[in-house]
Amino acid sequence: MVRKCDYMIRKQMSQKSKMAEYAQLEPHQFRKLCRDAKHTSHTSGACEKYAQANLIVLPKEYANDFVNLCLRNPVPCPLLCQTPVGDPFKVDDSRYLQKGFDLRTDFPSYNIYENGELRLTKTDVRDEWSSNHIGFLIGCSHSFEHELCENGLVPRHLTLGRGVPVYKTTKRLDPSGVFINCTYVVSMRPYKPEDVPKVRKITSSFKKTHGEPVDWGYDGAERLGIPDLKRPDFGGQPVIHDNEVPVFWGCGVTPQLVVMQQKDKIRGPVISHTTGAMLALDITSEDIKRIG
Amino acid sequence: MVRKCDYMIRKQMSQKSKMAEYAQLEPHQFRKLCRDAKHTSHTSGACEKYAQANLIVLPKEYANDFVNLCLRNPVPCPLLCQTPVGDPFKVDDSRYLQKGFDLRTDFPSYNIYENGELRLTKTDVRDEWSSNHIGFLIGCSHSFEHELCENGLVPRHLTLGRGVPVYKTTKRLDPSGVFINCTYVVSMRPYKPEDVPKVRKITSSFKKTHGEPVDWGYDGAERLGIPDLKRPDFGGQPVIHDNEVPVFWGCGVTPQLVVMQQKDKIRGPVISHTTGAMLALDITSEDIKRIG
After folding, report:
1. How many CA atoms lie within 13 A of A176 on its CB side?
2. Among A107, B53, B201, B235, which is disulfide-ready with B166 (CB 3.0 to 4.6 Å)?
3. How far apart are CA B215 and CA B229, in angstroms?
């Protein structure tokens, strides 16, 4: 038991020191590390001045319904940009990504879904991304963590060197075409109740990366239908102190859950990032704030 | 009892024939009728080829939070345009309204709220609209009713010559600044279950006027927390046939409820349209469909 604890502490320390190193990298350098499978896990704290993105890659016949789903539900699904059909080297908004990227390799790792079920996790999806696929980049709350830190409101999971805790909820998205009966996924960061107004204010500027929280407090957890905060559905294990409350933000894992919720209505493979393991974008957190 | 029925039928017939006349008017002609207090009730079917708008007028200190609330919740609150501070004769997007309008008089009637409570209903708010107020126009589902009619899917309340039935729900908006604990208001039109996909498809194009339904079916009513469909909170009395289900759309009365839900957190008078009694816009329903 002592040895296991010791091992875990050493692992966390090593993850933290690695992340301190990654924090200073340029996005293209960090993407290269992921492309070469030298970094394959969560990206909280990487390229700390830059924004990050979630990924969902769908067969083109679902693209219109998905874009409309994002427009109707911009808090859990803030759509940044999309690729042309079958082309993982281009996006339709160069503010987010410039040249020299490959969306099939530049995330740390990927999930592959078939008929709404997770089939496989890989660090490279060059074999799966077909000429029929369109990739969508969705804003990520990692993008506002740097500004929270700058204001002395360091998210707990960064202190712990873990991924942010992520929960499924019962809060429903407004439907769009094939996408019905969809529910929000949220990320959670604990804060003292007296800090919540400041935390809301800071994150509200980040309209393209989920903006301000969707709810907060233990009553908020109940409203969101989260049965047990100690058991996140994805991400790292939470630590909430007695003088703190949980604060919940929309999360870019939502599109993955949405796909799973449609089951075999979505034919053909769907590709996504894995929870917490994002793409480093070429836009700074400061600049993404200016995009409404 | 016979006489009351007779009176109601005659009243409905007269409303229906009036609306048939109003259906053919140009928006500026219909606005003039409202300005002169010659039409003071609901506008379902008026200027049938043109879109309509809801109104909320707030003291300027709440404008940023309100705009952000709309951006975060575009289904119940599709923001079309806004006025400069204190100027009811201009809006910031001339696609919706051209010259020659006065937002203080051109709606059939207005509600005036103080500390979240309805104080007064008037046909003209020239005395209440101060130099500190900003007016916001919100898309209205009346705008897609013409296209439903063209496709043989005539909304029941038009057949009956009534306003559309409108309900409060327990579905929560994502909060923005001062606006927290807000819930959706929805309008309801009954359809046969087999027509729901077509109804969803037709209305999904109208992204600036609530788009496709937020939910449908008696299970949908339950999910939305509507306790009794026979008792709408606003609008006309519903008639749902045995072979039909209720279909619910986001409703532009939501901002009024949002203001009421904030109670005395919103200081100073707030002005709105009255439920179902909208502004006739200069943009056609066909053209508003093209605005995403």
Report:
1. 26
2. B235
3. 14
Residue A234 lies in domain: 1-292
Give, in degrees to the nearest 5, the angle at Cα B187 between A75 and B229.
115
Q: What is the 3-state secondary structure (H, E, C) of A88-112?
A: CCCCCCCCCCCCCCCCCCCCCCEEE
The two tokens of residue B272 are 């709105």
Domain identity same for B158 and B193: yes
One domain for residues B150 and B103 = no
Dihedral, B214, B219, B221, B223 alpha carbons, nearest 10 = -70
| Reported ipTM | 0.92
Number of domains into which chain B is organized: 2
Q: What are phi and psi of B58, to 5 degrees?
A: -120, 150
Q: At A191, which CATH number?
A: 3.40.1640.10
All residues of chain A having their beta carbon less than 8 Å from the beta carbon of residue B141 are none
Burial of B59 (0-12, 13-18, 19+ CB in 10 A): middle
In the predicted model, is pLDDT for residue B1 greater than 50? no
CB contact under 8 A, B68 and A223: no
pLDDT at A5 over 50: no
The model's confidence at residue B11, banded by pLDDT at 50, 70 and 90, is low
A232: exposed, middle or buried (Cβ count in 10 Å: 0-12, 13-18, 19+): buried
Distances in whole angstroms, Cα of residue B137 to Cα of each of A131, B58, B91: 43, 12, 9
Distance of alpha carbon A80 from alpha carbon A82, whole angstroms = 7
Residue B223, in any domain of the structure: yes
B74 neighbourhood in chain A, CB within 8 Å:
71-72, 74
In 3D, which of B127, B109, B100, B89 has the Cα closest to residue B34? B109
Give me the pLDDT at residue A20, please: 84
